[in-house]
Amino acid sequence: MASLFTQEIHLSKRHEEILSQRLMLLQKMKNKFGDENTERASLLQATETASRRNLRLLKDIDAAEEAFQTKLIPHPQPSMLSLETRYWASVEEHIPKWELFLLGRAPYPIGAENQNEVPFVQTEAKL
Predict the structure, then answer these.
(1) In this predicted model, which residue has the larger pLDDT, 45 or 122?
(2) What is the pLDDT of residues 67-107, one digit of tens each?
(3) How far is residue 76 from each of residues 81, 89, 90, 117, measured CA to CA in Å?
């Protein structure tokens, strides 16, 4: 009977040790998960802060680039605008003549003396 009693005491002590280890491990797990959650929240906040900073930097870069471009390209003078407008009007006026020539449906569009230099051969154009 004494051996059963000593065995009971030994098992009781072992049970207490196991329970204390369990409690200690649970506390460690709780601390670890708490630390991980804190770290995760900190990383999330740092990421959001970095994203906002990056967006501000991109906007600043875009604004600086736009300001640089406006300084780099001066406003054209009125005479240059007039010349450009007349040029494009002339191009649009002559497009139909050149288009027909390039499609092989009409002779060389500018002057009769130049027709000898660039002969119009309708049979080649149709092939």
Answers:
(1) 45
(2) 888 777 777 788 888 999 999 999 898 888 888 888 888 88
(3) 7, 18, 20, 39
Phi, psi of 120 (to 5 degrees): -95, 115
pLDDT (0 to 100) of residue 9:
93
CB burial of 99-122 (b: ≥16 within 10 Å; e: otherwise) equals: eebeeeebebbeeeeeeeeeeeee
- Distance, CA of 77 to CA of 82 (rounded, Å): 9
Please name the residue ranges forming H helices in 1-127: 2-72, 78-102, 122-126
* Residue 127 DSSP SS3: coil
60-75 burial by CB neighbour count: b if 16+ within 10 A, else e?
Answer: eeeeeeeeeeeeeeee
| Separation of alpha carbons 12 and 20, rounded Å | 12
Tokens of residue 27, six digits = 């506390």
Find all residues with CB under 8 Å of 115, minimum gap 6, and list them: 107, 108
What single-letter DSSP state applies at residue 103?
T
